[in-house]
Amino acid sequence: MRPRRVAAGAPRRADVTGPKAPVPTVDEARALLRRIAGALGPAERAIVAAQVESIVSVSGTAEYLDLHLEGDPPRLDWPEAPLHARGDAADAEGEPLGGFLVWMKTGLLDSIEFHVYTADSYTWPPLDAVEPRLRD
Fold first, then answer.
1. Which of 101, 41, 36 is nearest to 76 (CA)?
2. Rounded to the nearest 5°, which phi and psi values hold at 34?
3. Residues 38-70: pLDDT tens digits?
4. Beta strands in the chain, from DSSP E residues, in sequence order
5. For residues 107 and 5, is the Cβ–Cβ distance under 8 A?
6. Sign of dihedral through CA atoms 41, 43, 45, 48?
7. Which residue in 28, 94, 102, 133 could disulfide with 24, CB within 3.0 to 4.6 Å?
8. Reduced to 3 states, what is the DSSP secondary structure of residue 128?
9. Which ranges are annotated Low complexity under compositional bias (predicted)?
10. pTM (whole model) above 0.70
11. DSSP labels, 92-121
């Protein structure tokens, strides 16, 4: 289920469930999305790549990062739902840390959801710790 939007000034879930983490940058969001898109087929990957280049800003938290696109990039034929590619994150020993879902809206990238298996940290793991996969 997609996270609900909260009113301005209301605490976001990350504010009440775990330590605050730095908000990822546009470059970090773009790099993560490129990595996750690696699980897609060539045609979908090309469309997502064009949308990634259209991201001009991000807002929110490390747990729910809203993506702001500019221009009119090509759209996927995809409903308001998570993209069927995801990113699973593990630590250096291979223990699962959490994962990423990419939310779409009207065929465009909308947000990145980062879920963790412990409340230790909502800081995004290094990119090489994220394994792109197709969702079941």
1. 41
2. -60, -40
3. 999 999 999 999 999 999 999 999 999 999 999
4. 55-60, 64-69, 82-90, 96-105, 108-116, 130-134
5. no
6. negative
7. 28
8. helix
9. 1-11
10. yes
11. TTS-EEEEEEEEEETTEEEEEEEEESSSS-
| Distance between CA atoms of residues 108 and 122, nearest Å | 25
Question: Which CA distances in Å does 60 have to 15, 47, 87, 126?
Answer: 11, 24, 19, 20
- Residues of the chain short of pLDDT 50, as ranges, are 1-17
CA distance 63 to 121: 10
Q: What is the distance between the alpha carbons of residues 136 and 60, in angstroms, rounded to a whole number?
A: 27
Q: What does the alpha-carbon distance between residue 113 and residue 125 come to, in Å, rounded to a whole number?
A: 13
Q: Which of 18, 39, 10 is nearest to 98 (CA)?
A: 18
Residue 126's contacts (CB-CB under 8 Å, 6 or more residues apart) are none
